[in-house]
Amino acid sequence: MPETPEPPAAPALRGAALGTADISFFVVSAAAPLTVMAGVAPVAILLGGIGAPAGYLLAGLTLAVFAVGFTTMSRHVTSGGAFYAYIARGLGKRVGIGAALLALVGYNGMEIGVYGLLGTTTADTVHALAGADVPWLPVSLAGLLLVWYGGFRSIDFGAKLLGVLLVAETGILVLLAAGVLLKGGAHGLSLGSFAPGAVLVPGTAAVLAFAFAAFTGFESTVIYRREARDPDRTVPRATYIAVAFLGLFYAFVVWTVIQAYGAEEVVGAATQDPGGLFFTAITTYVGPWAADLMHLFIVTSVIASLLAFHNAINRYVLSLAEEGVLPAALGRVHPRHRSPYLAGAAQTLLGAVVVLGFALAGADPYQQLLLWVNTPGMIGLMALMLLAALAVPVYFRRTVHSEGRWRTVVAPVTAAVLLAVALCLVISRVGLFTMASTTVNTVLVALVPAVFLAGTALAGRLRTRRPDVYARFAEDPVQDTAQDPAEDPEGAQPCPQPTPS
Question: How confident is the model at residue 5 (pLDDT cuts 50, 70, 90)?
Answer without folding.
Answer: low
